[in-house]
Design a protein that fits this description.
By secondary structure, this protein is α+β, with helices and mostly antiparallel strands. The protein is built from four helices and 13 strands. Helix 1 (65-90) runs antiparallel to helix 3. The two termini are 21 Å apart.
């Protein structure tokens, strides 16, 4: 595939160019830049991509098989305890304090059950158009911390994928490390706005590339970008 340097506009075959830290290096002016994503970049089956009028619409289900298995098992176990606790709560022969002690079982059922319903039926929608980028959430239950994101096109300078590393408790002296990725926008006022979070860099780069291509934003590297 032929690649054009955004700095000097010279064109070269991609396989003939030097690569440093995931960036291509122009053989003419030594400028570093990100290669454009190929048109056949695929996304997991939880995504649907469509053109609605002049808008690009990317919809992502929250459903992840591995997460559903864990949450579903927790909900099943909580249901068993709730049934047992309910029998104790409404049966005779137990004092008030004993009956009160089973209430936490109901709380333990509500939390994983709430998470399971959200995971099965919620959708994140990213809409890109002449207005900019708007992110909305369609959920069957209220989610207080989720808010609509609206970024005017005139305010967006660049979109990039950022790696987030989380360290949890250690086991046998080895800390557990979790990698997640955010799709962010660099705004022209210097601020950074989060568009969405994804589980793999491939997802992040694919969504980033689709939005930038649709909005006509030239893809350039930023310091916070994964593999910059």
């Amino acid at each position: 595939m032929e690649v054009t340097c955004p700095n000097c506009e010279m064109s070269f075959a991609e396989n003939s160019m030097e690569s440093r830290f995931g960036l291509l290096v122009c053989s003419n002016c030594d400028h570093r830049f990100k290669p454009k994503l190929s048109g056949n970049t695929s996304l997991p089956s939880i995504y649907t991509v469509a053109n609605e009028g002049s808008d690009l619409v990317i919809r992502k289900k929250w459903y992840r098989k591995e997460n559903i298995i864990v949450t579903g098992f927790m909900t099943f176990m909580a249901s068993v305890f709730m049934i047992l606790g309910g029998g104790l709560l409404f049966s005779s022969g137990h004092d008030f304090v004993t009956k009160l002690a089973v209430l936490p079982f109901f709380v333990c059922f509500i939390v994983p059950g709430y998470s399971l319903i959200l995971s099965l039926y919620s959708i994140t929608e990213i809409r890109a158009g002449t207005f900019g980028v708007v992110v909305t959430y369609k959920t069957p239950l209220p989610v207080p911390f989720l808010k609509k994101i609206s970024l005017p096109l005139s305010s967006i300078q660049q979109i990039y994928c950022e790696q987030k590393i989380t360290y949890s408790g250690s086991r046998r002296g080895v800390r557990k490390t979790t990698f997640n990725y955010n799709i962010n926008a660099v705004l022209k006022n210097g601020a950074t706005a989060k568009i969405d979070n994804v589980e793999t860099a491939e997802e992040g780069r694919a969504v980033e590339g689709m939005i930038e291509k649709h909005l006509g934003i030239w893809d350039e590297a930023v310091p916070q970008e994964f593999n910059w």
